[in-house]
Structure formats: structure tokens, C-alpha cells
Write a structure and sequence with these properties.
By secondary structure, the protein is an alpha/beta fold. It is built from twelve helices and ten strands.
Length: 330
Amino acid sequence: MTPEEFASLYAKALIDINSVGWHWFAYHFNNGPRPFARGILSACASIDRMAEGIGTELLAELTSIGGRDRDQRQYEQLLQKLSEILVIERIVNCPWPEGTTFQHEPAAIRNGPRPELLVVSPQGRLVVEVKTPALLAHVRARTANQIQVPYRGGIPLEVARELTEGEVTLPRDNPILDFLRDGERKFGAFREDCSTSSLLVIVWDDHIYEPISTLVNEGSGLLTPNSFARQADQQVETFPNVDKVILIRHMNYFVEGAAERPLADREHGMDFGGPHALPNVLCEGHGGRPIPQFVLDVLRAYPHDDPRLRMFAEYNPQDMIFWFGGLPQE
């Protein structure tokens, strides 16, 4: 980030963030800025260099989310916006061929739905949607309860309840189903052009087994023939407009970075990590169209059934999780 880029974005951010009233990130921008805010500014400047104006737009959207003192819903909206900035910064900085252009929140038809990003290159088009679940209540439940059932249709809930004297943490699968449905809706008109592929990116926390279990467990996974999502005629609900789903393991970095707690392997909350950082996960959607391998590489996405991932428990579908002793703190 050049001094000129920094000065321009920082000045705008200060004006915007102080005009909305109370803001979760005001401290980070009004004091220096702090490393967390500097990471946001750097990511937005990086986007602007490759896709003029998009980084500035995203920064304005982020700084406008405020006005209600310590409002949890606004905090979760900020996590969503941080996820968009994180993913878009990675995608626009892929090694696209000369002549590639980027459109932020495009519409394929008049008044049509708007995904996050459309990449138009000489070899084809890629449409991208970024999603982040509201996890704060789920994290509190996961921390308080001794047993977690990561997906439905596996261990019966009554069995799980018999094994614990307290509550059971239930699957966070409905938001993932909603994300697939929204991707299906937003991608549809774009995919009428046969050169267009689609990518749904879901940003999660370190408990990455949760979306993996929901999507690909053999008994009820949403991307399997045995999906729990059924249409009125009881046929499996499919998502033919969704080509790939990538699960990004990053939300903990946002939360810890914003709280200014030490990050073991990142410089700040917006640091995506290098090639040897924790892997992310690729799941094949129902659409079947390919996306460039360099996009998968830049997002550090490995197929969910890659043997290198399957060596680690958190990258496998889990039937039931037992938390013994001191429960994990988020």
C-alpha cells in the first residue's frame, strides 16, 4: 500500500466511521490506525489496484455498519463484510490474463439478484458469492454444552441428550442450506452464458468440520444424493447453478484480530496466510463447470476428500463431538 493509497482510504474511513455513531471498529481506526484497521485498509487498497473503486466501495460499506452501541447483529454484519473484502482481495489478485475485468455486485438482468463479484476474462467468466453465518449464539452454545451433533440424520438427538445432563449443540446446517439456495438464485441468470462458472465461498471459524459435515456426510450431506433437503415431491433438492463451494477457515482471525489478541500464524486479522498456512476446503457443487485452478490455489482450497486433509480430524465429517473438561473458549 503506497502512502498515497493509505492517506486517501484512511481519510475516507475516518470521516465515514465517525459519522455513524458507535462503531465496533472505531477504536482501530481512530488510534493510529491499529494493525487490524491497517489490514483492512491494505486489503481494500489491494483490491482497488486490480479493480478500480471496488475496494473503496467495500470500505465505505464496512464503515457504514454502525450506530447501535455493541449491537451483536451489526458485529455479525461486519464479519460478513470482512469476509467479502478478504475473498475479493484474493480473487482479483489471481494471475488473470490481460484484459480481465471485475464487476462488484453485478446484475445479469434488470433488477436481478446481485452476487458479490463477476470476473470477465478472455477465457470465460466467474461469478462469486461470499457468505458468512451468524455464529455468535452458536459459539456460545458450543462452548457451554458437552455434546455437539454436527449434522442431522446421524446420531439421533434423543441418544445425544441421554449422554449428557445438559443441552446438545445442534447442527448449524440451515444457514448453509440458505447459502446454497441463495447462490442458486443469484447465479442462475449469469450461467445462461455457457462460459460462466460459479463459486460459492463460505467463511467459517476453526470448527471447519461443521460445514464439511453438513455438506458431504454420506447420510444426509447437502451435496450428496442422500441430502436432507427435499422438494415437495420428496426428491433431493439440488443446486445446478452452483459449480464449486469453498469453505474458508478464517473467522477466528477476524474475531481475535479485532480483540487485539495474539495471532499465532498471522500478522493481523486480514492476513490470509501464505501457501503453507491452514488449508481451506473445496466441495464440488452440482453444476459441474470448472473454475481456474489458480483460483483454487490462491484460496488454498483442497478437495474435501484429499488424503492430506483426511489425516486431520477437523477436516472430516464428524458424527458427534464430546467436549471434556475445560470447554474451548472463542
